[in-house]
Write a structure and sequence with these properties.
426 residues; four-stranded antiparallel β-sheet; two-stranded parallel ribbon; 9 helices; rod-shaped
């Protein structure tokens, strides 16, 4: 009875992970439901929404965007007018020893910017604001990718724990079977030692999987602002690999950031070129003559003579920075194409691997393991053959977890590179 019970347990365990790999979280054996309270069921969208709400990097990028908006307002202002007062011909000698012969002049002056300085300056500030807006988008996309990677790691770790738990239960059942056969004289004592080693290895694998899960939950908690004990993972999305992998159309956020740099470089070059054009200062006022009590109006015009400073250095600097920005844009385009191509290749490879494991390799390994157990119970196979079949099945299930995680990691990277912005439905 003890032997048949162990074999039945082994066969049931062998068949369980096929359903485990493709079912909803309700049928998934994880530590989530036993060790952690279900206070926040996390899907990718809810996790990203929480991270966007709590992450300080997004707040910093929004503050820089507000600062750039203030710079636009400031750039669009004209120079302030100036009011002047002059007192002449007093405290001297002779008739000018007091204030009776003094002259008082009251004036108002205004600098008139020529060459479109104000408009060009405003355009440069707007280009800088566009760059800050692109930085905010990049911060959101980076955070969304990091959350997806952390959530994928947490779910993969949870499934690895479930797999390790199954492996440990199986190792214990087989060890009990081997022990009974050794006591009955039907198996060599060395097989009991091998079974004990297998059980210890299974326990070690479970301990490692639990540590991995703890670390993954802590990382996910740090991104979402929740405590590790408040996380409950929705794992239903993890096995879905039939999503459309077409990249978003149009330029991604990285390219738009570089394009904003180019636009800013052009605008700043225009500003520096306008600075070479002198501004005109107009003034008007009136003068009081204390000696005879008469008044007189006066007007004036002043224009700098661009002999020493024609802003050649500023223009050269702005032109060089524009060339650098255009080169960065070209390099970014090449780099993004390379990274997107690699992400698509990784996505396709992981998807094909997962489908092959799900459709053929794991079912075959489960069948082989079941037959090995049955044959061992009938004395047709040696224990080593059962152990080899078990390891093959465990390796295949581990490969499936890794392939699914690789698919979602590649999906996260591809979305980061091609999405114009992050959209979530919390």
């Amino acid at each position: 009875m003890r032997l048949h019970h162990a074999v039945a347990l082994a066969i049931s365990i062998a068949g369980a992970p096929a359903a485990w790999a493709q079912t909803t979280p309700a049928a998934t054996p994880t530590l989530t439901s036993t060790l952690f309270p279900k206070q926040a069921l996390l899907t990718p969208d809810t996790a990203i929404a929480l991270a966007l709400e709590h992450a300080p990097r997004g707040a910093a990028a929004r503050a820089r965007l507000d600062a750039a908006g203030g710079a636009v307002d400031q750039a669009n202002t004209s120079p302030n007018p100036e009011i002047g007062f002059e007192l002449e011909n007093f405290s001297g000698s002779g008739p000018y020893r007091d204030f009776r012969a003094s002259e008082r002049t009251y004036s108002l002056s205004q600098t008139i910017e020529l060459g479109g300085k104000r408009g060009r300056r405003t355009d440069a500030a707007r280009a800088a604001r566009d760059g800050a807006a692109a930085d905010l988008t990049l911060a959101r996309l980076d955070l969304a990718r990091d959350v997806r990677l952390a959530l994928s790691e947490a779910v993969a770790a949870s499934r690895q724990v479930a797999l390790a738990q199954d492996g440990l239960r199986l190792a214990v059942a087989v060890q009990d079977t081997i022990k009974a056969r050794v006591e009955a004289g039907r198996e060599a004592p060395i097989q009991a030692s091998r079974a004990d080693i297998t059980r210890r290895q299974a326990q070690l694998a479970l301990d490692q999987a639990n540590r991995r899960l703890t670390i993954a939950r802590q990382a996910l908690a740090g991104l979402t602002g929740l405590s590790p004990a408040a996380l409950a993972l929705d794992e239903g999305w993890f096995t879905r690999i039939d999503t459309d992998d077409a990249a978003a159309s149009g330029d991604g956020a990285d390219l738009r950031r570089r394009q904003a740099d180019v636009a800013r470089g052009r605008a700043e070059l225009s500003v520096e070129q306008a600075k070479a054009i002198p501004d005109v200062t107009l003034s008007a006022g009136f003068r009081q003559f204390r000696e005879d009590g008469e008044n007189a109006f006066l007007v004036g015009v002043s224009v700098p003579i661009p002999i020493f400073d024609s802003n050649r250095g500023g223009i050269a600097k702005a032109r060089a920075e524009l060339v650098a920005a255009e080169a960065d844009l070209a390099a970014e385009r090449i780099d993004l194409d390379r990274r997107a191509h690699a992400a698509r290749a990784n996505l396709a490879a992981a998807r094909d691997t997962a489908r092959t494991l799900q459709d053929s390799i794991i079912p075959t390994a489960e069948q082989a393991f079941g037959l090995a157990n049955e044959g061992y119970a009938q004395g047709k196979f040696a224990y080593l053959e059962v152990l080899e079949a078990q390891r093959t099945l465990v390796d295949a299930r581990t490969d499936l977890i890794n392939a699914l995680q690789g698919f979602h990691d590649a999906r996260a990277e591809l979305d980061r590179l091609t999405a114009p912005d992050i959209e979530v439905s919390p």
